[in-house]
What we know:
Bound molecules: adenine
Oligomer: single chain
Largest sheet: 8 strands, mixed
Number of strands: 15
Amino acid sequence: MISTLSKFDIKDASLAGLGKKRIEWAGNDMPVLALIAKRFEKEKPLKGYRVSACLHVTSETANLMITLKKGGADVALCASNPLSTQDDIAASLVKDYGIKVFAIKGEDNKTYYSHIKSAIEHRPHITMDDGADVISTIHKDWDKYRGEIIGGTEETTTGVIRLKAMQKDGALKYPVIAVNDSMTKHMFDNRYGTGQSTLDGIMRATNILFAGRTVVVAGYGWCGRGVAMRARGIGANVIVTEVDEIKALEAAMDGFLVMPMEAAARIGNIFITLTGDINVIDGKHFKLMKDGAIVCNSGHFNVEINIPALEKMSRKKREVRPFVMEYQVNSKRIYLLADGRLINLASAEGHPASVMDMSFANQSLASEYMVKNSSKLENKVYTLPENIDREIARLKLSAMEIKMDKLTSEQKKYLASWQEGT
Length: 422
Ligand code: ADE
């Protein structure tokens, strides 16, 4: 196995000491991934495979990279968002673990894409995405790097939506496993991870009190459900906006006020978008907002908020705290957090390790599955088999020392029959 690159691009290698301690701390709360790493170290299922990963460069991602390396993979990592990189983690991955990292927190768009290209120059057999940027780049501009690729994995809802659109158009040129579609991913990471880390991000950026405030949550998918639930838990009045009638109904019956954004804009104090779509908060909504409204996004891309419209309608802007930009709009002040980037990763540390444990158990088992099954897979988007998903749940329960019941043979028979017990 010849390594293709020896270079890296990080902010400051001297941060490695701090990064290593944080990687180990996160690892303490990732018992399922640790079990996989132990098996990978013995069995080396990824030996001879190069992986190009484009993920948020966090202490949890570091533990995934280390697991893949233990499995025999030669790994290159770039960031999946210009603001989400933890520079100390990037430093430690390079210095302590010999992993090629191309990521600097706050990098401009040009550097962000040049880092993606550096990761692709690693000539991957497997691509690992969070938002489909590597796959898109290979499909749009860099077909020459597709030759050795056996497949990819995708971490997030937004990426999976894109990949399914590519599949529908017949444009997808290699198989991809939608890690997001595993139950042990989206039901936990998207809901409990986003729920907690989004509020954490807003609190770290602003230090505001949520109790008694009106929080508007745009989108009631798994992420929106988590944020709405946790905002209510901390004492906020929560409004949900939706375009899907089933989700709107679910939000209403979960006890949230549901209304159009145009109505919510007039009464909200804090706005959080998690829809995966564009201009959910638009120019016309900014005009209706109260003085002091705080606006942020926890969806994958910062297109959910129409920032160009806000820029255009504002007379002046100034940064009042790190990640808090004050816009003067007529006589009102509107505060945009983290330039509309994922607030949980920009001003906090992303989802806690305990939930990323399951997401990254899925990622590592997805790469092993890809190696074992690529010859049978077509150029489509796949979900990991349910037995793998359920095994991850069993391992997590065991790590949490939670026991559950088993069906008796009498109960199994009852469930399988249509004649008994009516
Ligand atoms: N996405 C959300 N939180 C994350 C984390 N802590 N690490 C990597 N990706 C994430």
